[in-house]
Amino acid sequence: MTIDAGPRLGRLTEDQLRRALDRFGLGALRSATPASGGHSGQNLVLSTDTGDHLLRGNPAYPWQLPTERYFADLLARRAALPAPVPYRIDPGTDVFGWSYAILPRLPGEPLPDSDVRGGLNDSGQREVAGELGRVLARAHTVTGPRPGRWRPEADDVLPFTLAGELDWPSRQPGAGPAITWRERVIRRCLGTLHGATRFGPATTPGDLAWAGRILDAAGPALDAPFTPTVVLEDFKPGNVHITGTAGRWSVSGLFDLTDAYFGDAEADLPRMLCSYLDADPALARVYLGSYVAARPARPGALARFPAYLLADRALVWSFLQRHHLRYWPETWTFTDWAGRYLDLAHPVVAELFPS
């Protein structure tokens, strides 16, 4: 019997799946189903007599699975968060032709990326928004030795270099000296936008100039010292599971940690915040308010926030342009699209962040 696991994983045989499970002693296969949600198509749900597991295969880069395991272990161990552990990796290619990992299928269901409200009633929406803020604050209690990326070849957090950040996500170490946090935020944002110009006319020279002015204005605030924490970067509705009933909603899963690094915790706030701004700014206030209640913002947060929001929106914009996805008027450029988020976010952050 063969299973169509989607264009990325291809057609897999029952024998292959059994061999993968046997490698980790995970029991007899009962069923295999492509996981719902996500853009990568890397996941297959395996039900066995020991429970439900997730096969994650055909990694985009050699470092992807080791990085996810590193941060899953760190978040589970040091913040008691529901990350997928144990995260078992088979680096060999003899079973499928590519390396793979098998990890627990976390309980609950993801919130839809297209609607962070997820069909919940008003009280449920507010409860989940508050819980997401608290969970992110817990993740940010995990500190690192320096700003930078964990690299499996060194088993260490190495400082950011300009070449390495501009080459992301190929994740070559990059030659040259370490760069400051300010330079990393500004140069990576502008480099991402410059790269997006290859995908169509919606990213213009005017967009780069507009973003550059906002980033430069935030520059002095970006120089303020901080304790490096885990930054998930892709903390969004589709990458968490929630479970519960009325009055008892909680986050039951935190996953897809490919992009995590160590940096300023504030850089992690815009991704989920923008999902809530699209859905309901009042929920954005609940989300950010619960985060700040658990982890008060540092002085200068209000001045830094536009830079962090633009840096996040540049990454999302580049992805959407590359895949020819859009949900806004055809005439909009990056300035129109990202400027809307800046406008919506301003009253929320101005209330909660110190200047």
From TrEMBL:
Ranges for domain Aminoglycoside phosphotransferase: 32-293
Signal peptide: none
Top-level division of the source organism's lineage: Bacteria
A Pfam family the protein falls into: APH
Record's protein name: Aminoglycoside phosphotransferase domain-containing protein
